[in-house]
Specification:
The complex is a heterotrimer of chains A (about 290), B (about 280) and C (about 290). By secondary structure, chain B is an all-alpha fold. Chain B is about 75% helix and about 0% strand. In chain C, helix 3 (about 90-100) packs parallel to helix 5 (about 135-150) and helix 4 (about 105-120) packs across helix 5 (about 135-150). Classes of the chains: A mainly alpha (about 290), B mainly alpha (about 280), C alpha/beta (about 290).
C-alpha cells in the first residue's frame, strides 16, 4: 500500500472534505449559469450559439414583463421589511417573556414546518368572498352577501401573498435571532440594566446593533425567497401583473422555444437583482469578520 | 397572607412581563388559526354561507387522501418520506464535511468556498430549477428519484451548512486532540468526542433538510416531471381549486406527517440529553 | 448609600439559594461576601441589583424598600466576573454608557469617560475597540464604566478571578484606591479569603445560602464562629504585612501584635491553631533550635 506522508495527508484533507459540497455547488451554478445563458439566446443543445440581448431588452420593454418585475420587487420588499420588523419584535418579546420550550415549538417551529401553499390555502379559506372572515363580518352585520367582500385571491395589492409570507417568515426571522438575543439578554442585557439602561434603551443601544449581522442575513433570505417563489403568487396572485416566477414558468412551458428565452431572460434579471443583494451581504460579512478580529 | 401574596407577585414578575406575554400569546393564536381552519375544512362535508361552522362532518377527504387517490395515497406519502430522509441524510453528511473543512483547516480557497456555499440562499429555487432541468434531462437523471434527491439536496445545502458550521466551530478540536494524545485513532477520537458535540446540529440539520425536501413543490415538478410523485406535487392541483375538503385533507395530513417526524427528532434530542435547557437562569 | 438586606429568601427551580439572609452595608463601606462557590454569593448581588426578585424579605436603600424598583432605576453598577463590555462600542463609549443613559450631553460624557479612564490608568485607550484590550485592561474598563455613572452602590462579582496572580494584586490595590477616592458603598463577592481579609471593612461569610458569620476581617480570622469559618482561613499560607505600634496591618486587615517589633512582619496561619504575627526582622538566633538541624 502506498504510504502518503502525514503532511501531505493533512494538506489534502480539507479538499477531500470540501469535495462533495463542491460537486453539489458545481451542479447548482452550472444550472443557474446555463439558464442565464439561454436568456442570451445561447442553447448549445439546440445548436444555437449566437449571442443576443434581444430577450433581455424585450423583458424590460414588453409591458407585461416589466410590470411583473416591478410587482415582484414590491411583493418581496414589503414582505421582507415587515417580516424583519415582526420577527425581531417577536424575538425580543419572547426573550423578555422567557417563553417556554412548548411556546417556541408552536410559534416558531410550526410555521417553519408548514408549506407555503398550505398557508395560501388557509388564507383562501379565510379571506375569499365565501371565506370565514366575511362570514364573521356578516354576523356582525357589516357584509350582506359573499359578493360584497373583496376576495383576497387575485387582489392586485397582493396583500394575501404578503400575509402568507409574513405568517411564514416572521417566525423564521425570529428563529434566526432568538438565540443571539437570549444570550445578549443574559449577559450584556444585565450589564446594561445595572448601568441604568431601561429595557427599550438596552434593546436599541446593545441588542439591535449586535444582532445586525443575523438580521441582514435573514432579510436577504426572506427577500430572495419571496422574490423567487412560485407557489404563493400562483395560488393567490392577480391575472395581471403576474409575479416574475409565475410568468417565467408560463413562458418556460410554452412549446415555442423562443419563449423559453424570455423565461430565461426573466430568470437572468432575477439572478442579477439577487446577486446585487449577495454582494451587499458579502460586504457586510467581511466587515463583521473584521470587526470580530 | 400579605407576605405570601407579595412573594407570589414577585415570582410572577420573574416569570415574565405581562405585555410581552400577551404579545407572544397573540402570535401563538395567529399561528394556530390557519392550521385549525384547515383542520376543520378537512372534516367538513357541507359548509354553506354564512354559517361559522360546518353543518355536516365526514371523513371523506381523509379517506380520499390516504386510500382512493388513484389507489396510491399511502404509497405517495411513503415515497415522499423516503425521498426527504435520503435528502436529509445526504445533505447533512455533505454539510458536516464541508463545515469541518471550513472550521478546522486553513487552506487556499476556504473563504471563497464558505461564501459560495451560502449563495444558493440568495438565488431563487425557481431560477435554479428551470436552468438545471435541461442538464438533468441530458444526464438521464430527470424523472428519476435520484435526480429529485440530488436537486433537493442542493437546495437544502446552505441551510444545513449554516447549522453545521455553527456547531462545528463551537465544538472545536480541543477534545478530539485530547483523545488523540491519549492514544485513540482519528476515527475513534472523532466518534467519541466531536460527534456527540455535533449531535444537536446534526439533528437540526437533518430535520431542516427533511422539511425543505418534503415541502418542495416547484423543483420536484420540474425535475420529477410527473414521474416522481411526492405529496407536495400530488396535493398542489387540489389547492388551486376544486374540492376544498380534499385540499384541506391533504393539507392536514401533510402538516401531521411533518410534525410527527419533527417530534421524533425532538424526542431523540432529549433522549440523548442534548436538548438545550432554556430554563430561567440555567 | 446605606444598604440593608432584610431577611431575604430565594428559591430557584425548587432549590433554596438564599435562606433568610440579613446584613447591612453602611454608606461608603466596603463589605465582602465570602464563601465557597455555589454558596449563593453571586445571587445576593443580583438580588441587590434587582436582576432576580427575591421570594421573601426586602432590600432597602437608605431605609427605603426598593423591591418594586426595576434594575435600571436602582443605580447599582455590577462589575461582572466575565467583564461584559459592549463589543459594539469602543472603550470610551463603554465607559460613557451609564452617562448616556442618564441623558448627559455628549461632550460632558466623553470628558467624564476620559477622567475615569485616567483613574483606572488607561488614559490613551479611549478609542480602542474592546477586543483589542487584554483581560486585565478590559476589567479596568469595566471598573471605569461602573464608576462613571456615580452609582449609589458598586457591586463586584468575583472581579479578579479571571486574572493572573500579579494582575490580581494590581487590581486589588486599584479598587481600594478608587474606593478611597470616590467613597462609594461597595459590596464584593469573593471565594478568596486573602482578598476578603485585606480589602474589606467587614466580611459576611455565607455557606449553602445561610449567613454564618459577619464581622471585621480580624473578627473572622481570630474569632471564627465555627469550624467552617475557621477552616476557610485555616490553610497554612502566610500574609505579608507590617507591624506598627503593636498592630499588624495589611490592606485593611488589622490584627493586634503584642510585643512584636515595628517593621515588616508576616501573619502566619497554621491549621488548628490561633494565627500569630512573626516579625521578619527578628534576629536569626531567635529561631527555634530545632530549625537548625535542617
Amino acid at each position: 500500500m502506498l504510504k502518503i506522508p502525514r503532511k501531505t495527508r493533512r494538506a489534502i484533507a480539507p479538499y477531500a472534505l470540501a469535495l462533495p459540497g463542491a460537486v453539489l455547488l458545481f451542479i447548482f451554478f452550472y444550472g443557474v449559469i446555463n439558464g442565464v445563458f439561454q436568456g442570451f439566446g445561447i442553447m448549445p443543445f439546440l445548436g444555437r450559439i449566437e449571442f443576443t440581448l434581444d430577450y433581455y431588452i424585450e423583458a424590460f420593454t414588453r409591458s407585461d414583463l416589466s410590470s411583473s418585475i416591478v410587482y415582484s420587487l414590491y411583493l418581496s420588499a414589503v414582505s421582507a421589511v415587515l417580516a424583519i420588523i415582526g420577527g425581531v419584535a417577536i424575538s425580543a418579546v419572547m426573550t423578555r417573556a422567557r417563553t417556554s420550550r412548548l411556546t417556541r415549538l408552536v410559534n416558531i417551529q410550526i410555521p417553519i414546518m408548514t408549506m407555503h401553499s398550505l398557508v395560501a390555502l388557509a388564507v383562501i379559506c379565510l379571506f375569499t368572498g365565501s371565506g370565514l372572515f366575511p362570514r364573521l363580518l356578516y354576523h356582525l352585520g357589516i357584509v350582506s352577501d359573499p359578493n360584497t367582500f373583496v376576495s383576497v385571491v387575485g387582489a392586485s395589492s397582493g396583500w394575501g401573498i404578503i400575509l402568507v409570507y409574513l405568517w411564514k417568515e416572521i417566525p423564521f426571522v425570529a428563529f434566526c435571532t432568538v438565540t443571539i438575543m437570549a444570550n445578549i439578554s443574559d449577559s450584556l442585557g444585565e450589564a446594561a440594566a445595572t448601568l441604568g439602561a431601561n429595557p427599550l434603551k438596552t434593546f436599541f443601544t446593545v441588542t439591535l446593533p449586535l444582532c445586525k449581522g443575523a438580521i441582514v442575513k435573514a432579510f436577504l433570505i426572506v427577500f430572495t425567497f419571496a422574490f423567487g417563489s412560485y407557489e404563493v403568487p400562483f395560488l393567490l396572485g392577480p391575472t395581471l401583473p403576474k409575479a416574475m416566477p409565475v410568468l417565467a414558468y408560463i413562458e418556460f412551458q410554452d412549446p415555442d422555444i423562443i419563449n423559453r428565452c424570455y423565461a430565461m431572460a426573466l430568470n437572468g434579471i432575477m439572478v442579477l437583482i439577487c446577486s446585487l443583494f449577495a454582494l451587499v451581504y458579502f460586504i457586510v460579512l467581511q466587515r463583521e469578520r473584521k470587526g470580530r478580529m | 397572607m400579605a407576605a405570601s401574596n407579595a412573594a407570589a407577585t414577585r415570582r410572577k414578575k420573574r416569570n415574565g412581563k405581562p405585555f410581552s406575554k400577551l404579545f407572544v400569546a397573540i402570535h401563538v393564536l395567529i399561528v394556530l388559526l390557519p392550521i385549525s381552519v384547515i383542520a376543520v375544512w378537512a372534516c367538513a362535508d357541507r359548509w354553506q354561507w354564512p354559517l361559522l361552522l360546518p353543518e355536516e362532518f365526514s371523513m371523506r377527504g381523509i379517506e380520499e387522501v390516504l386510500f382512493s387517490s388513484n389507489g396510491q395515497g399511502l404509497a405517495v406519502m411513503g415515497q415522499s418520506i423516503a425521498i426527504a430522509f435520503a435528502v436529509a441524510v445526504l445533505t447533512t453528511i455533505v454539510a458536516a464535511m464541508a463545515a469541518r473543512a471550513i472550521c478546522n483547516y486553513t487552506w487556499v480557497g476556504r473563504n471563497a468556498y464558505s461564501f459560495l456555499l451560502v449563495v444558493p440562499f440568495l438565488i431563487p429555487t425557481t431560477v435554479f430549477a428551470m436552468g438545471v432541468q435541461v442538464l438533468f434531462i441530458h444526464a438521464g437523471i430527470a424523472r428519476t428519484v435520484f435526480g429529485v434527491i440530488l436537486a433537493h439536496s442542493i437546495c437544502a445545502l446552505p441551510y444545513a451548512v449554516t447549522i453545521m458550521i455553527d456547531v462545528t466551530r463551537a465544538a472545536g478540536t480541543r477534545l478530539e486532540d485530547a483523545a488523540r494524545t491519549l492514544g485513540a485513532g482519528p476515527l475513534r477520537s472523532f466518534v467519541s468526542t466531536t460527534l456527540p458535540a455535533l449531535m444537536p446540529g446534526i439533528l437540526s440539520s437533518i430535520s431542516m433538510s427533511y422539511i425543505l425536501s418534503f415541502s418542495q413543490y416547484f423543483l420536484t415538478l420540474l425535475i420529477g416531471g410527473g414521474a416522481v410523485r411526492t405529496f407536495a406535487t400530488v396535493m398542489f392541483p387540489y389547492l388551486s381549486g376544486g374540492d376544498r375538503t380534499i385540499a384541506a385533507a391533504y393539507g392536514i395530513s401533510f402538516i401531521l406527517a411533518t410534525f410527527v417526524v419533527f417530534l421524533i427528532f425532538e424526542w431523540l434530542l432529549r433522549r440523548f440529553g442534548l436538548g438545550k435547557r432554556t430554563d430561567l437562569y440555567g | 448609600m446605606h444598604l440593608t438586606f432584610d431577611h431575604i429568601s430565594l428559591a430557584l427551580s425548587g432549590k433554596t439559594i438564599l435562606d433568610d439572609i440579613s446584613f447591612e452595608v453602611a454608606d461608603g463601606e466596603f463589605v465582602s461576601i465570602l464563601g465557597e462557590s455555589g454558596a449563593g454569593k453571586s445571587t445576593t448581588l443580583k438580588v441587590v441589583a434587582g436582576l432576580i426578585p427575591q421570594d421573601e424579605g426586602s432590600v432597602l436603600f437608605d431605609g427605603q424598600p426598593v423591591d418594586d424598583l426595576p434594575t435600571h432605576k436602582r443605580s447599582c453598577a455590577i462589575v461582572f466576573q466575565d467583564i461584559r463590555l459592549f463589543p459594539n462600542m469602543n472603550v470610551q463609549d463603554n465607559v460613557a454608557f451609564p452617562l448616556k443613559m442618564q441623558g448627559v450631553a455628549k461632550a460632558e460624557r466623553l470628558r467624564v469617560a476620559q477622567e475615569m479612564l485616567e483613574a483606572v490608568k488607561l488614559p490613551d485607550m479611549g478609542t480602542r475597540r474592546v477586543h483589542e484590550l487584554s483581560g486585565g485592561q478590559q476589567q479596568r474598563v469595566a471598573l471605569a464604566r461602573a464608576l462613571a455613572g456615580h452609582p449609589r452602590a458598586i457591586l463586584l462579582d468575583e472581579p479578579f478571578s479571571g486574572l493572573d496572580e500579579q494582575l490580581r494584586e494590581e487590581m486589588r490595590s486599584l479598587v481600594l484606591s478608587l474606593h478611597e477616592r470616590f467613597g462609594m458603598t461597595s459590596l464584593m463577592v469573593t471565594h478568596d479569603p486573602d482578598e476578603a481579609l485585606t480589602m474589606s471593612d467587614r466580611i459576611v461569610y455565607v455557606s449553602e445560602g445561610k449567613l454564618i458569620q459577619e464581622g471585621t476581617p480580624a473578627d473572622l480570622l481570630l474569632r471564627p464562629r465555627n469550624q467552617l469559618v475557621a477552616s476557610c482561613f485555616g490553610d497554612t499560607s502566610a500574609i505579608e504585612g507590617a507591624v506598627a505600634e503593636e498592630v499588624f496591618r495589611v490592606g485593611k486587615l488589622e490584627v493586634p501584635a503584642p510585643e512584636v517589633a515595628d517593621g515588616p512582619a508576616v501573619l502566619v496561619r497554621v491549621q488548628g491553631s490561633v494565627p500569630f504575627v512573626h516579625s521578619l526582622e527578628a534576629p536569626a538566633a531567635a529561631l527555634p533550635a530545632s530549625e537548625e538541624g535542617r
